[in-house]
């Protein structure tokens, strides 16, 4: 329970623009990690740009894994290192292959 409270506390002290980006992000982001980056001197605009860039890279991979390469917003293929990076199985035995 302490970790969840820490997440909420960190989220509440983030700049409003960053809270908006995190709240509307396609993926879960660790508010404590973002708060630590700000504490270390990262500019909020840089953190926002990094979040958006990661989501832009990740969405076609997620669509590939969940819906297959025929999905209009999916990657045609995905390298194994990207599957591993995003914690997907490397066996490629997805439902749409069967």
From TrEMBL:
Q: Tell me which Pfam families the record gives.
A: DUF6525 (PF20135)
Q: Which domain of life is it from?
A: Bacteria
The name on file for this protein is Uncharacterized protein
* The species this protein was found in: Beijerinckia indica subsp. indica (strain ATCC 9039 / DSM 1715 / NCIMB 8712)
